[in-house]
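dumping this here so i dont lose it
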């Protein structure tokens, strides 16, 4: 009942009540004594006032309960939208969408049908409220017939109080739990339907009659607002997956170029060296042949180390769970084990707090720089210094090798320097290359830790 209707009732009912009192006083005044008239009128007034106030307060309480329920749903909608922003994995987002939708409208069962590229049938179906064992006994997921297909074709929301009485219902497969009430809402992104939310069997917040098991128009409105938020979250997860796939392709291209430019050429050079050694053996020069074989063995060992490093680069868990200083220690140990370089690591703050994402990126940058030193610098010593605080860090990498040619900095022929610059750009930091007065190269990384 609206406030306007209640206002008119509050005006009309007292008038009718007073009219009834006037009629009673006029009728009884002719036949009864005064005291009886007054007693009847008093009882009539009390009963009328109690009945009227009880009815008015029941209407007000029902309105307050409805307002509280809608407030809880809106609060739940806000929390659900925030919860979706914390997840980027597409499969996790889809499951979270259907789980949150159930809670918003107090549904016992929920389903999310992801449509195929043509938008005609359900390609993927995610359920909520049904145990995995029971779901496995129900056979293949629905394709989009019956009521589900009706929502796909019409692209509109729908409430059905009793599924079994709907002319579009096709029945349930074996081992399917019984379902009665139904609410379906499409999930649209940029005018295109991505999928549909299906909720069944509304469960009341408080014990009540059977009418509490029906979905309402307000439930539909809440779910439609949530579907808009869900579409954004799903689209973000899809973009994140595409970005990851692109990053994988770029990393594969980088590794492929490094393999081609480094390892394959090294193996080719070793092959030429062995051919020359074979020729020397045939011309009776065993001492020179032995030196060539030893040289080839050393070259093959270097190739093996390079391949091992590439394999480690492809293992995504290598730097996971490491703090920055511990990761730098590991890189320096690897460098020392695979070369004759004298390595040194110092830090003004070994417990510098850096997020896991930044730590992995920084360690990849340092790994790239150390690889360049080992392969190209002809250095004998490498030194890394870490400094910084909660606002940002400064990382210096120095060697005493031959230095980086100026032309290589302006127009790098390989991917090493380009990769360093690209990664530091992703961290919103800066990198500076310079020569040292005593020879070699100095690389300074400056990375903000607070945005």
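and the seq i came up w/
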């Amino acid at each position: 009942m609206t406030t306007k209707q209640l206002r008119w009732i509050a005006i009309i009912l007292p008038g009718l009540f007073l009219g009834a009192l006037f009629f009673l006083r006029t009728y009884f005044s002719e036949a009864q004594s005064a005291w009886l008239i007054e007693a009847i009128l008093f009882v009539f007034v009390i009963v009328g006032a109690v009945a009227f106030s009880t009815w008015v307060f029941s209407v007000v309480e029902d309105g307050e309960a409805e307002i509280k329920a809608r407030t809880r749903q809106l609060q739940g909608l806000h929390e659900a939208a925030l919860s979706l922003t914390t997840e980027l994995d597409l499969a996790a987002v889809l499951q979270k969408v259907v789980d949150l939708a159930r809670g918003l409208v107090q549904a016992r069962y929920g389903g999310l049908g992801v449509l195929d590229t043509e938008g005609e049938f359900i390609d993927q179906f995610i359920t909520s409220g049904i145990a995995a064992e029971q779901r496995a006994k129900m056979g293949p997921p629905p394709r989009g017939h019956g009521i589900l297909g009706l929502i796909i074709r019409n692209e509109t929301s729908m409430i059905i109080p009793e599924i079994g009485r709907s002319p579009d219902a096709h029945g349930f497969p074996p081992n399917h739990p019984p379902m009665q009430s139904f609410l379906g809402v499409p999930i649209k992104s940029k005018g295109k339907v991505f999928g549909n939310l299906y909720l069944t069997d509304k469960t009341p917040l408080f014990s009540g009659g059977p009418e509490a098991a029906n979905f309402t128009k307000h439930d539909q409105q809440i779910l439609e607002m949530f579907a808009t938020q869900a579409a954004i979250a799903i689209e973000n997860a899809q973009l994140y997956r595409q970005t990851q796939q692109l990053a994988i392709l770029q990393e594969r291209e980088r590794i492929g170029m490094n393999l081609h430019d480094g390892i394959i050429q090294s193996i080719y050079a070793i092959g030429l060296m062995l051919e020359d050694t074979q020729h020397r053996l045939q011309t009776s020069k065993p001492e020179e042949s032995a030196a060539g074989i030893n040289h080839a063995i050393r070259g093959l060992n270097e190739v093996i180390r390079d391949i091992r490093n590439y394999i480690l680069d492809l293992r995504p868990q290598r730097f996971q769970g490491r703090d920055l200083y511990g990761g730098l220690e590991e890189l320096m140990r690897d460098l020392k084990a695979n070369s004759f370089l004298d390595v040194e690591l110092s830090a003004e703050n070994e417990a510098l707090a850096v997020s896991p994402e930044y730590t992995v990126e920084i360690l990849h940058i340092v790994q790239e720089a150390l690889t360049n030193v080992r392969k190209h610098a002809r250095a004998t010593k490498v030194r890394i210094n870490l400094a910084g605080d909660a606002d940002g860090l400064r990382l210096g990498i120095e060697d005493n090798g031959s230095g980086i040619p100026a032309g290589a900095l302006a127009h790098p022929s390989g991917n090493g320097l380009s990769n360093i610059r690209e990664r530091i750009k992703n961290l919103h930091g800066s990198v500076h290359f310079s020569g040292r007065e005593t020879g070699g190269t100095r690389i300074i990384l400056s990375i903000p830790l607070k945005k």
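The CA atoms of residues 9 and 142 lie 52 Å apart.
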